[in-house]
Amino acid sequence: MRQELNLTQTQKLSEKMIQSHPLSDQKIAEKMQEKGISILRRTVAKYRGQMGIADAGGRKVYL
Fold it and tell me: 15-53: per-residue pLDDT in tens?
């Protein structure tokens, strides 16, 4: 259950990212901490990878 909650929260934050300024895994973890969800950067990276979402550099769109 807890893993599903973290995965859902990570996905919601990922969907809201601006492509020209994507959040790093560390920043996502910090934002989740602010919402009261304790998660490590490496856990964010794991879930991001499982969802097939690229890292911050891979999500950035250069204009």
Answer: 655 565 778 889 889 988 998 988 899 998 898 888 888
Please choose, from the candidates 38, 48, 43, 41, the residue with its C-alpha nearest in 3D space to the C-alpha of residue 26. Answer: 41
> What is the C-alpha separation between 36 and 52, in angstroms, rounded?
25
Q: Which of 53, 51, 61, 59 is nearest to 8 (CA)?
A: 51
Which three-class secondary structure string do you get for 11-51? HHHHHCCCCCCCCCHHHHHHHHHHCCCCCCHHHHHHHHHHC
What would the two tokens of residue 6 be? 């973290």
Global pTM exceeds 0.70:
no
Task: Give the other-Cβ count within 10 Å of 36's Cβ.
Answer: 6
